[in-house]
Design a protein that fits this description.
homotrimer, Four Helix Bundle (Hemerythrin (Met), subunit A)
């Protein structure tokens, strides 16, 4: 049957597992934002303060803002990756290519989270570049493969 | 023919309809941001004020900021959902699972919009959790299904 | 073989190429944010200033904020487009429909970047509407096609 054949393909399987990790990592970063908010009592809406029986305030917190920037960056990097990754998987790349791209991206993103939260530069840029490079490389390779 | 077979599958059909609703809901939240901006005369760029023949200002508005947070949350929650949802649909889940996930998520997101705009807590967290729980559950189920 | 058949389909091919352009455009907008930050010495984190041997500051820059709004809008518009575009492609639309949607959206988004960075209104709204209209039209057409 068609759909079973789809997910039994090694490239689609690698894309699917990698994408699930990237999706769960994005959701985990969102939970990190919430957990720092609760620990530091810094919220985005007045009703959140009221729920904690606190006076509403407008101050922001450095760690909350860092985690929020990581979360936004997860979307900025993740949307192109999962999309281009699916197209790349459909071009049936080599096993080496699959491993580098679909293991490399999630690892790069987890290291990016650690580097950003700890304020490590230029390490943050270095690990961010892993994901960026992988996505651009897959995009160019896939476009060539489709056009030729 | 291949592609017709693809969209004639019940699980893919459910994913596609649910994803279209989630996409339209995200676009509608963006329109809500714009409509509140126009009604309250609070814009993001100086040229927007000039177009309305108003003096540019930097003030923000509570309802605009609320709608913007909902819009960003639509992306934070929606990207993992549509991605993991496609993989989940490919694993050919039960009809009950399809209904709970693909009807539950859009309903949860619409209730989240209402709760956030009205400033209702803890209702906002409760309805947000519906979508979060569904996505995590689909991710774990799909990963197990692919790996076994 | 299944997957080769998938990418050899004209509609899927058009979606894939269009999506790759949209993904690369989103990544390029992110690079634009970074390049303006470096040129103007305006960063988001203290460690970024330290790397440039500068005193950390909290000022923002108009061009940086403009490029950031374009980048966020790329996600707000791009996620619904690539998702709904895939479903639309699966419904096997006409060649004319493919051209209008899959060439029109990336062109609209590139014009939106130019209009936003130059502060041109109402041109920005006009070119933004191209992408919005295409996505809504594809969503409605696809939903009808699936339901009938």
């Amino acid at each position: 049957m068609l759909l079973e054949e789809f997910l039994s393909n090694a490239a689609i399987k690698a894309w699917a597992l990698s994408s699930i990790v990237v999706a769960l990592k994005t959701l985990a970063t969102g939970m990190l934002v919430s957990s720092i908010r609760i620990r530091k009592n810094v919220f985005s809406s007045p009703e959140d303060y009221e729920l904690q029986k606190l006076e509403p305030q407008t101050a922001t917190d450095d760690q909350v803002e860092r985690a929020r920037r990581v979360h936004l960056n997860d979307l900025e990097a993740g949307l192109p990756f999962v999309l281009v990754g699916l197209i790349y998987a459909l071009t049936q790349p080599s096993t080496l290519g699959l491993w580098i791209c679909f293991a490399g991206f999630p690892i790069g993103r987890i290291l990016h989270l650690v580097a950003y939260m700890k304020g490590l530069m230029p390490h943050r840029t270095a690990v961010w570049s892993i994901g960026f490079g992988i996505t651009v490389w897959m995009a160019v390779t896939s476009a060539i493969s489709i056009l030729t």
